[in-house]
Each structure stands twice: as C-alpha cells, then as structure tokens.
Recover the amino acids of this structure.
C-alpha cells in the first residue's frame, strides 16, 4: 500500500514535534528482555559484534551504527506491518523519512507498508512476549543487498502494561523491532481538547522517540559526547526540550505538545546533545 521514498536531493530540514510514550511503569516491566521502550532496559547496551542479519553482510559493528553510517548499508527501509487497519499517516511517514535522511548518512530512507493483519479489538491487551513473537514472525520483508531494515508494528488494542494513569504508546525491542500503539494514541487524543494536528504530531513523536532508542540514544549504546543522560530514567535525556526526555513516555508529552514545546524544533525534536552523539558516529572515519 502506501510506499513513499525520499532521496537526499532537495530535502529540507523538518521540524518536529513530538511525543511519546506513556508509561509510568518502568519498574514493573516484565521480562522478556525487551522493555517498555528500549529506554529503560538495562541490557540495551550495544552488543558489539552483533552480526547484522540484513542483506548479505556480517560486518562486525553494533547494529545502531549501521543505521547511522553510510556503509555497509547505504539505504534504510522502515518496514511497517499494521494490525486492525492501521497504516502510517502519510504526512508522518514523509516527515520521518525526510528527517532521518537529514540526520543519518543514508542515500535513501523509506517507510514501506508491507502487510495488513486483522485487528484484535479495542479491548485487547498485548503482552510484550506476544508482540515480540509477532514482530519476529512478520518482519520478514526482503530487501536488497545494501539496505538495512527497521521493523515497525502498528497495533490496535493496547499494551498489557497500561495502568490507569499511564498508557504505553510505543515500545522498542533492541535493535530491530518497534511497536506503536495507534489505537491507544487515538484514544488518548480523542479524550482531550487536543486538536487533530497535535495528535499527528504525537504519532510522529512516538516514532521518533522509539527510533531514537534504536539509534542508541541516550547512552543506549551510543557514546555520549557530553553528559546528558537522565540515568534515573534509563536511556533518556535530561532536557525536556529533547524528544528523548523521560516524561514524554507519559501523558506529559501531550501537555508539552499542547504548549507547542516542539512546534519549531528542527531535527525531529532531538536536541543538540543527542545530535552530537549521532554525528560523532556518523562522521567518524
Ligand atoms: Zn524512551
């Protein structure tokens, strides 16, 4: 279905806004190793030497470095599989592609919708174990040699980790799969006074936050150029003007959007400290 591609020529920086995940239950996160949002996982450190399963290479480097650097994968595809009729919002996919193309050293970045699955229903509670299993079963889009893939599930229902006060909007299973709880996001946005454009910003923010964890932020594998990790909250940024701030895993992010906090922030909402970490790997010889 919707497939769009953005190439490096002619892009402009995009701006962004953001948001993300809610949760509030980092202490109660169950195993499997994944975690609500790779941000709080203790073992999310870079697995040096992890073989890269994509297209024909087993270069000895952490996977997040392959997302950031040009070689050995000049191209990047975000494979999206949707449950319950969800597909990426076109404007969100476009801004994500353009933003990542500006941040990463890639010839192209493409959000490609692959498979659609029946929904589980609005009341269904997804466990992390089930989501990881589904991600491994469905994230099998074949891509050409020289292309690295990041896999995204859009799901209906909600996370089994949800609490009365904390709704999970996104998860990242290091280092390949991400889950976006689109139904939950729609529900959260539908209950408040937030206008739909803000909900679109929230959708983008969830993507960006989770992609950020897969890129190794904050101190989630990537070495920090300068100190900016809020260690008390896992792999998150100390600044509330960065999309990687911990509170944006909670409903606080909606407040931030309502206040226009990310309305004019370029670079997908990553602050200078996060950008410095990415650039250090991106520009390293
Ligand atoms: Zn996080």
């Amino acid at each position: 279905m919707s497939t769009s591609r953005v190439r490096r020529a002619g892009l402009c920086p995009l701006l962004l806004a953001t948001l993300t995940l809610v949760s509030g239950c980092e202490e109660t996160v169950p195993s499997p190793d994944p975690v609500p949002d790779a941000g709080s996982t203790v073992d999310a450190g870079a697995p040096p030497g992890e073989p890269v399963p994509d297209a024909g290479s087993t270069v000895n480097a952490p996977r997040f470095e392959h997302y950031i650097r040009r070689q050995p994968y000049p191209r990047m595809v975000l494979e999206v599989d949707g449950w319950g009729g969800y597909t990426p919002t076109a404007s969100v996919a476009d801004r994500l592609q353009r933003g990542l193309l500006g941040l990463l050293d890639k010839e192209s970045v493409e959000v490609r919708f692959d498979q659609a699955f029946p929904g589980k229903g609005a009341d269904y509670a997804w466990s992390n174990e089930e989501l990881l299993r589904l991600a491994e079963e469905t994230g099998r889009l074949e891509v050409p040699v020289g292309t690295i893939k990041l896999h995204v599930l859009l799901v209906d229902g909600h996370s089994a980790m949800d609490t009365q006060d904390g709704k999970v909007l996104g998860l990242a299973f290091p280092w390949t799969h991400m889950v976006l709880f689109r139904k939950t996001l729609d529900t959260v946005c539908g209950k408040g006074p937030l206008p739909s454009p803000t909900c679109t910003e929230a959708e983008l923010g969830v993507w960006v936050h989770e992609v950020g964890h897969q890129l190794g932020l904050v101190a989630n594998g990537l070495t920090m150029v300068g100190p900016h990790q809020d260690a008390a909250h896992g792999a998150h940024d100390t600044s509330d003007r960065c999309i990687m701030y911990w509170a944006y895993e909670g409903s606080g992010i909606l407040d931030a959007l309502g206040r226009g906090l990310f309305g004019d922030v370029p670079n997908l909402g990553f602050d200078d400290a996060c950008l410095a970490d990415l650039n250090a790997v991106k520009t390293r010889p």
